Amino acid sequence: MDKNRKDDNSPKKRLIIINGPTAVGKSRAAVELAKRIGGEIISADSMQVYRGMDIGTAKITAGEMGGIPHHLIDIIEPDEEFGVLKFKELAQQAVDEISSRSHIPIICGGTGFYIQAVLYDIDFTEYDDEKASQIRQRLEMELEENGSMYLFERLKKIDPVYAVIIHPNNTKRLLHSLEFYELTGKKMSEHNREQAQNESPYDFRYFVLTDDRDHIYERINKRVDRMVEDGLPGEVKMLLEKGYGEELPSMLGIGYKEFVDYYRNRVSFDEAVENIKRETRHYAKKQMTWFKREKKVEFVDIRQFRDFDDVVDFLVKACMDIEQK
To answer: What's the domain range around 270?
Structure first.
């Protein structure tokens, strides 16, 4: 933990997290909540940081933002490095800036690990060991020669708990977890669990919106169809034409990898669309698995409310418990 971030006697900054599985409506809820309580939103989506990747990431539009400032969206190019270390740094800066304006920072997004890193100030210094470079080079060669599923099967044997919450195509986290195990002899899931025992430097409420699984899956399918209609295939084609290769972490995101496969004549158009739907449903399931392992999470089942406005009313009342600092 960074001992210089706050004095032990200083009051904790307020922080609200709105999360939930894909297509549950968390972005809309976060915007309406921000309007009601004077908040600004920090995106915790690992894909919406990339410029030019709008349709496939379901990136919030200017109109949908409703005049609420959003942070950590459209900040890097698709071929630039971005991971939990950078997110933690930028998100903490955003929290400090928003708080300095007497506004309430609201983290909204799907990447639970990113949120956990900020919420509990997780220490990643073990990643900086010089020995890591040789291990990483060897793992990258194995990845190139054998593919991600080869390494993912290894991870499942080493750390089945962590394997449940990451996607085999997320090669960055896959390589990091194997590298970390070889460096320290410790499972990534164990490291995260230990770090999550840290006391949070924030006065926070962590809400996870939930709904019936079939309803979520239905909305996912409709969202993918809408993305295709809105021009997702063309967006992927444009990225490829700009020289962004399929090996980039950004191009391995759901929606992009599948249409890269289509343009490389590996699958048909219809197969690409169905693959996106399947992978997105799988991702939503992994998200819920992650949330259930988190501590101090408040699940908000939207089926228990009359309408969306009632959900927002509940969130507003709950957030009033956070003392004005």
So the answer is: 13-122+196-319
